[in-house]
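WARN retry 2 of 3 for item q-0093 after timeout on previous attempt; input resubmitted unchanged.
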Amino acid sequence: METNLNIILAIVIGVLALVFAIIAIYHKKLSVAIIASGAVSLMASILFLLLSAPDVAMTEAAIGSGLSVIIFFYALSKIRKQHD
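OK item q-0093 returned
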């Protein structure tokens, strides 16, 4: 029973990651695209956790979801300041 739940949960999280990836690619606002790419990384970290790889999940959550999003927003703010 628990295995079926994990499979269903993994499929749902995978579909959510695909939806966020499509949003990140096609959205016109860069801030929304950055948040969506962070959400893709967050979904990947949840999948890693479901696959019994907590060390990889923590690394993906910290670097992929956290640090990358912060760096992208910092770069976006620098670009916007240069254009003003």
